[in-house]
Amino acid sequence: MDFTPEEVARGRALRRAQAPWVLGGRVAGLGLTAVLGFTSAGAGLVTAVGGVFGGSRTAEVLGGAAALLVLGQLLQLPFGARVRSVRAGYGLVTQGWGGWAVDVLRGLGLSLLLGLPAVYGLYALTAWSPQRWWLPAAGAAAVLLVALSFLYPLLVEPLFNRFTPMPPGPQRSALLGLAERDRVAVRDVLVADASRRTTALNAYVSGFGATRRIVAYDTLLSTAEPSEVELVVAHELGHVKHRDVLTGTALGALGAAMAVALLGLLLTLRPLLDASGAADAADPRSLPLLAACAALVSALSGPAQCAVSRRIETRADRHALELTGDPAQFIAMQRRLAVTNISDVDPPRLLELLFATHPSATRRIAAARAWRS
Asked: Residue 372: pLDDT above 80?
């Protein structure tokens, strides 16, 4: 028995306590975008906010986009706060409410900083051609996603965590040696101050090429055995070895381009435009409709994305086993991660199929035993 009945029950209880709020937040978000996008309420919002800032087309585009982002964030606040409270009750949260609020504001600021220029450029294209705007927009979306993938470790990650080089010693040498044995070039080994927010354990490989570095949570380094840390990193090196990040970025860019093309088609449908109160795609009042269609496409594609992610994670697990040749320690590591993170080690299959990006702990342990045999 890998997990005691108490550990299984604790993970299941946490999942049941936070699931209504996590799922409720998703449903509420979709509901808000649907109401604003598929009725004239969103058009009225764009017109009203644009009027406050002068009533120009630019004011409607930027004001409407900002209003949608802020409203979405406000709607998610009670759900996010409740999930945080539940997790705090299980000892997974170390950050105070003030720090949490600062993170929420940082996230909103980042969304506005990235989203408003993108929306402005998009509606410049719709003004150029209400029918063919999606052609250059699809290419721009693909390029933007690739650029963000490269810049995220350098510009976004430092906004939420502080990273310090791991001091010289056996652990750093072992991790660099593991990467060298795997023929994966890494620039450095960094420690993230995750303990400011959580007790959860994690590590990852971040960046591309010359910016690639191994990042380990300080919680992992202070809790896990050195060999367990190596196995977590070996799993992450598997993503690099199999070019999962590059492939994911390429597929994401392709998916972004296809999504924009689909949105271009949807915004030509007269019934949708009439319901939203917009004249055509160039009308700033179509912005809520665009957001609603994008949210719906994202929600419908979620299970397929999760299925692909689980296959990728399974392959990275196998890589870790092949690189270390230590299935017993792999099983111990999976047990430590599941118990410390209070995971539901064997969730309902439907929830796993719809929302899980990783296989359950029991499936990963069973795969390790099968690999050993």
From this structure: no
pLDDT (mean) for 227-248: 90
Going from N- to C-terminal start, the domains of the chain cover: 5-160+242-372, 163-240
Beta bridge partners of 204: 215
At residue 373 the predicted structure's pLDDT band, cuts being 50, 70 and 90, is low
Residue 237: HSE in the Cβ half-sphere, 13 Å Cα cutoff: 26
Residue 344 C-beta-side C-alpha neighbours within 13 Å: 15
List the structure tokens of 183: 């023929």
Structure confidence at residue 248 as a pLDDT band (50, 70, 90): confident
Question: Residue 260's closest CA among 141, 89, 117?
Answer: 141
> How do beta strands 163-165 and 188-192 pair?
antiparallel
Q: Which residues contact 262 (CB under 8 A, 6 or more apart)?
A: 293, 297
Q: In what order do the strands lie in the sheet with 203-206?
A: 163-165, 188-192, 213-217, 203-206
| Euclidean distance between CA atoms 238 and 236, whole angstroms | 5
User: What pLDDT was estimated at residue 357?
Assistant: 94
**CATH architecture, range 163-240:** 2-Layer Sandwich (3.30)
